[in-house]
Amino acid sequence: MAMVMHSMKQNKNVYKALIAAEYVGVEIKMVDNFEMFVSNNTPEFLKMNPIGKIPVLETPDGAIFESNAIARYVAHGSFLLGTSKFEYGQIEQWIDFSSFEIDTNLRGWFVPRLGYGTYIKPVEENCIAGVKRGLDALNTYLATHTFLVGDGVTLADIIMTCNLVLGFKLVMPKSFTSEYPHVERYFWTMVNQPNFSKVIGKVMQTEATIPLASAKKPDAKPQAEPKTKEETPKPTPEATEEEAPKPKAKNPLDLLPPSKMVLDDWKRLYSNTKSNFREVAIKGFWDMFDPEGYSLWFCNYKYNDENTVSFVTMNKVGGFLQRMDLARKYAFGKMLIIGNEPPFKVKGLWLFRGQEIPKFVMDECYDMELYEWTKVDLSDEAQKERVNQMIEDHEPFEGEALLDAKCFK
Ligand SMILES: N[C@@H](CCC(=O)N[C@@H](CS)C(=O)NCC(=O)O)C(=O)O
């Protein structure tokens, strides 16, 4: 019998178990026709969870409530709970940290703003201070760690990320999170992992802290016996995170005069050239290149001193390329991780549609600010040769070995 989750699916507490289930290959079915404040007030539900809150997981042996406990139950016996007693202890440590230092304070910040409970300014200030303190500590730790425990995703990362999601979506715009660049890198890397994005979908960071809800909405507590559907309080946006689909605006780059360069032709040539790279791919690039329709840019990571751990540096660049996914139709990039020894240098070459770095890329991909950008001067042969060497992963590059080269295509 498959396990059954009693809840709506769009809820950060439900995500914890669903993501864990993706990692360990366990099937969890969502209960049919769940209706918040109705289904969770029935005698059958209250028998499973006497406080009437979601989520509840129905297992062959009985029901489990409390989302962290449900996620632990799903992860039981797997690598998600570590490979040693010590790792297990660290995982539990980060689960508690994310629940009590991050989640409690974030909820104290956004729940009253959504109009539930009472908004009290000093209480909010206290919660924001708590969020800052928690993120500051997390940021320090993540400066030298890709994952919270060990070398891969564990339940600690799943629960931490789920607890951060509504912070990023509702109250923490870029101007707030940019104080914590390692947390940003971590968060976007995690939510873009296939097993996360399959459950959570695409996460968009809020552009501003949501304003105080003007009209006070009903308290989010379960009503004893909602009599009709109309009297049933609506689930809080926290409980159900479904968003109305927004009309899609056309990307301004699609309105540029047509270019003779077909980006996909170049990407195909790059991928298919296995030998004589200079003569075939590099020559082909310059034959195709349209300097009016496209521009070339060098980028240099501003904080190379931080690149002291090779796999952390490589993951950082990998995360950047994942986040550039939004620009796939309009860009091609090469990123080189340079040096035999730390600190490693990260340098790149990008081809963008248009004459500027696209604004939507600057706005939406926070990594862009971590690099210094210089437009390639096409009248300078030395710069053109540098372009060639970056495209072909030329080694040595500027006198140094390459630790890794990654391509965005
Ligand atoms: N500590 C619980 C919190 C669960 C919780 O707050 N659930 C909310 C929805 S996000 C709920 O069911 N609220 C309904 C209510 O308060 O009656 C967990 O992690 O599972």
Automatic annotation (TrEMBL):
EF-1 is composed of four subunits: alpha, beta, delta, and gamma. SMART domains: EF1G (SM01183). Probably plays a role in anchoring the complex to other cellular components. Residues 211-256 are annotated as: Disordered. This is Elongation factor 1-gamma. Residues 249-409 form the EF-1-gamma C-terminal domain. Residues 84-210 form the GST C-terminal domain. Keywords: Elongation factor, Protein biosynthesis. CDD domains: GST_C_EF1Bgamma_like, GST_N_EF1Bgamma. SUPFAM superfamilies: eEF1-gamma domain, GST C-terminal domain-like, Thioredoxin-like. It comes from the Eukaryota.
